[in-house]
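Data availability excerpt. The first of two example chains:
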Amino acid sequence: MNENTPFGGDKKVGASILAKPEKAFINWAIPKIPSWTNSRMLTLMTLVWSAGIILTGYLASVESFGVLWIISVCIFLQWLTDSLDGSLGRHRNEGWVKWGYYMDHFLDYIFLCSILIAYSLILPDNFKYLLFFLLVVLGAFMVNSFLAFAATNTFRIVYLGIGPTEIRIVFIIINTLLAFFGKTYMAPALPWILGASIIGLMVVIYRTQKEIATLDIQTKNS
């Protein structure tokens, strides 16, 4: 991109499975947000939800798994503020486009780390290395998005119909199973979750490099 190229980071491409109902909710909710709330406040709330998740993981490790429902609440609230911040900024023409792009997606990574940190406090030691590898793989999806954006000026965070909203639902389901059944079913499922994530990443990388190679060929031939 050069200085004359319009910034594309605030215009995500691709639609996830739940994109339509999510968009309908956002359009309904934006006009109802109080005037004292702005998009930057909503973006920074991810820090609060992330701290709440880590604290809950600690409490679950020393007291009872019964508190794990708080993690699900934090995940839901993070979805809420993260879904509304950009749309609110555009609705009110606040102008924090590049700041929002940077902070929103950096804090998404912090939020992901907070969930895996909380689970690392709960799961047996011999399964914790799987959480590390899961963080590497899920982080690679983010790296892929940012590198592809730098090459194409097109920002995509939805792959194979799966986006951040669907991933949050998966985490809520996992958290619910942990709360009801403890570690019994969660720990053995981790290798399967990691394996599925690796396969998905390989498909995404193949498609992304193919798209960028096509752009190179088109540029060369033009």
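And the second chain:
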Amino acid sequence: MQTRLTFKYVLTPEGLRSDQTLVIGATGLIEALEPASGPTDGFFAIPGMPNAHSHAFQRALSGFGEMPHGEDSFWSWREAMYRLANRVTPADMFVIAREAFLDMLRGGFTSVAEFHYLHHMPDDCPGPEMAQAIVQAAHAAGIHLLLLPVFYQTGGFNTPPTDGQRRFVHASIEDYCRLLQELHGVRLGIAPHSLRAVAPEMLVGLINAVESLSGGQWPIHIHVSEQRREVEECRALYHAAPIELLARTLALNHRWNLVHATHATPAELQLIIKQDATVVLCPITEAYLGDGLFAAQEFVRAGGRFAIGSDSNCRIDAIEELRWLEYGQRLRKQQRAQLAGASGLGATLWQQACAGGAAALAEPVGEIAVGKRADLLVLDEQGSPWLGHDINTLLDALIIGGSRQDIAAVYVGGKRLVDHGMATGAEISVREFARVVAGLNEQ
């Protein structure tokens, strides 16, 4: 059965089109774009943003741990995160993830790559229950999920895992593959956590074992070069920076997604572009954790591909992620319009991030086009950031002054899941989330 949705304006890969009807098939894919006739379903439809990097359980940590403790940094924040992680049960995980996924929909993300490393039960018993809770939460929220079970073995370069990391660690590659075999009803990818948590010499064996099991070409995601200390420790042990070491260990390609890459060298940026990998940027979290600023202006102008992730989920807003990305580059360069194209900032930046997200998730998303999934954001015609604008500068105004509050509706696969910030099942989710967060963060 087909669904027809009509909009006054639609952002397509070929540019802005007016008075269009989207013909959507039973599978949620767009089958045609036709000239509109009759009443509209909304003002301006743009592609829903793929979220290329999330740790859903960390949504329960937002706003906690902000009192200073000496030289506070990513590494001290990580200890607070470990304390939370060691308390979460599968029931808690379902409640936290459901609220995080509903918040993603409200914030303009219509699909998500969940980088899941909180594996074992609180008593260290292995099993699929924590991952299954995430799958169930995604189904409950209505968001499309790529689950990335994380392979994690060491606590740092050439150091054993700490007690805080005990729930993340798999004893062996075979143990990790056993978990993959227990997961059903969800798309999967491969996620070695980082070079500090997975020794480079294990990577080839990990990838080969998973591909032998899956018989497919799954997306591969890895944290890399997020912190200066990580880069320094990698150089000290391997005499190479992390991305250089990664490329030396195995061949990067379009399946590889390098999360953060904050401290990549100019030579490493060129290497990423040459080998067609995607960089996944998480500007709000990278600011929240004090990571630093990725050289996005140089990377994008040289032809690099990037995606956006909400990572720690301390604040979930796809529009704000892109504003932080642009403003960070303005502060780096002390100049304006760093990621803008010839037609302006908004459409260029949105479409680039959507295209990178589609590559990172290996899904037919990120475009309003035939054969793509009908994942859409519909902007409010009376949104205050663009009052007085014409349609040609509206998306610039969205990035500069807009937020999730200016989204009138969100569709996933042609189904309307959010209406002016209200999502189905949100009231129950909020109540249960508040209860779980309060309990987990009790001193």
